[in-house]
Structure formats: C-alpha cells, structure tokens
Amino acid sequence: MDVPAPLVRGAALLRCPVCSAPLELHERSLVCDQRHTYDISRHGHVTLARAPAPGDDAAMVAARAAVFDAGHYAPLTAALARAATSAASDGDAATATDDETLEGGAAAGGDAAGGGEAARGDAATATGDEAQAGEAAAAGDVPQPGEATASRDEARSGQAGAGDDAARPDEATASGDAARPGQAAAGGAAAGPGAASVVLDIGAGTGHHLAGVLEARPGALGIALDTSRPALRLAARAHPDIAAVVGDVWEALPLQDGVVDLALVVFAPRNGGEIARVLRPGGTALVVIPTPEHLAELAHLHAVQVDPEKPERLERTLGAHLQHTGTEAVRWTMQLSQQDVEHVIRMSPAGAHRGEAEAHAATVTGSVELRTYRSPDVGGGG
Ligand SMILES: C[S@@+](CC[C@H](N)C(=O)[O-])C[C@H]1O[C@@H](n2cnc3c(N)ncnc32)[C@H](O)[C@@H]1O
C-alpha cells in the first residue's frame, strides 16, 4: 500500500518523539538519523508519541461522527473556516511569496481572525468578550490537567478495536526525497489565500473541522494530531490533504519549530508552550471552548463537575506564550432527535457520566467562544 500523499508532503515537518531529530520518509516508515523508526499504519496514520494516552474510544468517535454527519455542528465548522480565511488574509497581506510565508515571513498584527466578523448562516455571533465568564459543563470539552472535573481519568480509558482500512484514492507513492519544511508544505495545488500553508489540528478527533478549514484554504496541508487511533482512522479519510498523526499534547508535539501557520484546538487539551513552539512567527491559533450555555438543555443527563476557573486557566496556559487578539461568540440551535441527544452525550467525556434519565428529542443550544491567538512576529514563538 502506498504512503498517503499528505504524509509524503508533511514528513519533513515532523520530528522524532524520542530525540527530536528531523524525520525522513523511507518506504512506509519515518526514520530519524538515530534510526528511530515509525511505521505508517495500514489505516494511514503514523504514531509519533512515546506513551500516548488512549484518547476517545471507538464508541465516542462513532457518536461524534454521527453528530457531524447530521450537520449539527456545521455552524461551528463554518465559523472556524471563516476565521481561518481571515487569518490567511492577514498572513498574505504581510507576505510577498509563498516561500516567504513558509520560511516564517511576518504576518500583519492587529486584527483578530474571526473576531468582529459578522455571523453568516445560522450561527448567531456576538463579538467581544462578553461570553468569557464561568465556563460550564465539560459536555464537549476535554478537561485540562488540574481541572476539577470528575471525568478526566475515565475519559482516557478504553480504546476500541480495529476499524476499516483507510486506503485513499489519492494516495501517492513515497519518494525518498525529503523536502525541507517549506517545500513539503508547498507541494499542494492551488494559489490564493492559504496556499501552501500548514494547518495543525490538535486533538483533531474525526478531522471534521479541519476538513472544513482546508476547504477554505485550498492547497494547505492539514495535520490531524490526536491520541485516539479510532478518531485518526476517520481523520485520515476526512479530506485529501490531511496527514494523520498519533501524538500526545502532553508530550512535546512531534513537529519541528515554527512550521505551522494555523493551529486549531477545538474542545481539546491545550499545551500553550508547545503550540507557541510549532507556530511560525506571526502564526495564528484558533481555540474553541464551550460557554456555560453549551448543551445546557442536556445537563440533567450527565453529571460532570464544572471547573469555574476554566477561562482563567486558558489565559494562563496560552496567554503566557501567545497574544490573545480576539474572541468571537458563536451560538446556534440544534434540533436533536432522541438518538442525536444520546450521541451528543456519548461523544464527550460527559458520556462516562451518563445518568439514568431518559433522553428525549430536544432543541439544544450550541454556544462556544472562538478565541484567536497570535504568535509574536519577531523573536520566535516560544
Ligand atoms: C472533545 S474531542 C474534540 C475533537 C475535535 N477537536 C472536535 O471538535 O470534533 C477531544 C479530542 O482530544 C483528544 N485528546 C484527548 N487527550 C489528548 C491528548 N493528551 N493528546 C492529543 N489528543 C487528545 C481525544 O482523543 C479527542 O479526539
């Protein structure tokens, strides 16, 4: 079986999780100069972590995929795509050529990607920081280290078995030539905003949001990073430009310094220092966290404790490394069937705390903050 084309493109951006040396593609393996070797699975992903936590199990991943397939989170995907386009425009405005972008050319500061942008579609958007107070239920979000949630340990348990084969129609044969990071990313097709850029989705899950963002940034290379192999099997097939990498946020990310133009963290763990390290100078991070209203109508169906200090933790985690440049409040309404309700509960850590109450069809609120952070233009991302 051939090596998936995005892994061919992205190989030179990755680094060894043991010794941090660059990796090169040799046949179906990534190898560093110390001969640490990482085989590409038949499902299309490669494991670049020393001891990755299991991440979401197959049942959680299947529930998440069903919710996305039904379109219930489409307004959030659309908001991310708009913010990604805005971030690309800012970068292009300050950069003469794709090569300079990939070499870490400066991006325009100031404007928040997505912040202040009017809502389209059925996502009702209010700008400003008014939604930042008191984040609620972890229904949807992954607890961060030290958070007072009941679900953290259980959320890590249990990974499920084999899925289907992830062979792709667009797979390319591996070449022995390892391009430098910029060249690897530049292997894509199109011109226009975001061409030849690198989008890293940290805790990408099924790759659904990343695929939506890549549609808005033609030619970009997407890297879906997660500890969940069942999730990455789907991510590897979610879009022709997604490279799927098993990596753990709480280890050093298996990417070289400054090679990422745009990082996404959607309901997933956040390691500020590592995000800053892998972002290029002037690069952008889009971070999504739930507000207290998110899925509030379903709170009676589970028992997940709330960490009232979550927003402050986010600021401590990311604010120490990146500049917070804007917040967009994204709200939408979901008409959920009884089965949809079960899926929405089961796809998150709240599912481990599903109570006895019977689920019913319901009109449910989606409500998140989409926060934009910038890596400093000068002096690196650390
Ligand atoms: C709530 S899901 C969100 C998935 C995706 N971002 C989305 O919005 O659909 C959280 C994801 O983070 C992953 N995850 C949990 N702990 C992780 C870790 N330490 N490193 C990388 N991924 C992790 C889970 O496997 C899961 O896919």
Describe the structure.
The protein has 11 helices and 12 strands. With 382 residues, it is α/β, with parallel strands linked by helices. It has a single domain (5-374), classed as 3-Layer(aba) Sandwich (Rossmann fold). Strand 1 (24-26) and strand 2 form a beta hairpin. It is globular and about 55 Å long. Mean pLDDT is 76; it is low at 92-138 and 147-195. It binds S-adenosylmethionine. S-adenosylmethionine binds at residues 53, 55-56, 64, 142, 203-205, 208-209, 226-228, 231, 248-250, 266-269, 348. The site of S-adenosylmethionine has 22 residues, from helix 7. It comes from Solirubrobacter phytolaccae. Residues 199-283 form the Methyltransferase domain. Residues 106-118 have a biased composition (Gly residues). This is Methyltransferase domain-containing protein.
| Average predicted local confidence, pLDDT | 76
The CATH class: Alpha Beta
What is the approximate shape?
globular
* Helicity range: 25-40%
How many individual β-strands? 12
In this structure, how is the largest beta sheet organized?
9 strands, mixed
H-E string: HEEEEHHHEHHEHEHEEHEHEHE
Unreliable spans are 92-138, 147-195
Total separate domains? 1
Question: Would you summarize the structure shown here?
Answer:
Keywords: Methyltransferase, Transferase. The chain is an alpha/beta fold.
